[in-house]
Design goal:
The chain is an alpha+beta fold. The protein is built from 4 helices and 9 strands. The protein has 3 domains: 53 residues, no CATH class; 70 residues, no CATH class; 60 residues, Bacterial Topoisomerase I, domain 1 (2-Layer Sandwich), CATH 3.30.65. The strands form 2 sheets. It has a 5-stranded antiparallel β-sheet with strand order 1-2-3-4-5. The structure holds zinc ion (3 copies). The site of one zinc ion (ZN) has 8 residues, from loops.
């Protein structure tokens, strides 16, 4: 089977084809990044051997505000900065493909998990504070917050409040500057498609 002769859009050199295992295909960006010299361009190909470049979408990088690229990782699609590895901006998508805004990192307590004795993490949930094992997902242990002594709860509630104030999660914005709130069911759209839509409306 013949492959089209293509040159790299980044450096102008001839592109070469490599056969990758299915797992490696998902890690193509990481593999390209580890290539020893020069240009790091790599892309999966379609049935005709043409590169399928990652799509630019209407979500801005939380660090540098460039439009993010939709990529496929081991745990499904996610958005990452076109300037990776210089910029590590990443936005996660949930199973339905909606943007999941980052959460406050959990607060580690000195309360023990009753399954594995590791420390429990304290987080704010929809129904108030809750305790989960710091070894999750290895250990699925939970702590009984409501069964703690009242003074213990008061102490940790105050510490959690301070912790959340000191560690606000970064706000995720669309490329037109709108803040994407948790639960707003924001599905990233390819940028060029969005431009086409706006032209139609005009
Ligand atoms: Zn190149
Ligand atoms: Zn970035
Ligand atoms: Zn545990």
């Amino acid at each position: 089977r013949s492959r089209p002769f293509l040159t790299c859009g980044d450096c102008g050199e001839k592109l070469t084809y490599s056969k990758l295992s299915p797992e490696d295909k998902e890690r193509i960006v990481t593999i390209a990044d580890a290539m020893p010299v020069g240009c790091k361009y790599a892309a999966p190909i379609d049935a005709q051997g043409r590169p399928v470049n990652p799509e630019e979408v209407n979500v801005a990088c939380p660090s540098c505000e460039k439009p993010l690229l939709k990529r496929k990782g081991r745990f499904g699609p996610f958005l990452s900065c076109p300037d990776y590895p210089t910029c590590n901006g990443v936005v996660n998508l949930d199973r339905k493909g909606y943007v999941t805004p980052p959460k406050v990192p959990p607060l580690e307590t000195d309360l023990e998990c009753n399954k594995c004795e590791a420390n429990l993490y304290l987080r704010t949930g929809a129904r108030g504070p809750w305790l989960g094992c710091s070894k999750y997902p290895k250990c699925k242990g939970r702590g009984a917050w409501k069964k703690l002594e009242e003074d213990v709860r008061t102490k940790w509630e105050a510490l959690l409040y301070e912790h959340e104030k000191l560690n606000p999660p970064p706000k995720i914005k669309s490329t037109d500057g709108q803040v994407i709130e948790a639960g707003s069911e924001f599905a990233p759209m390819p940028l060029n498609e969005q431009e086409a839509l706006q032209e139609d409306e005009a």
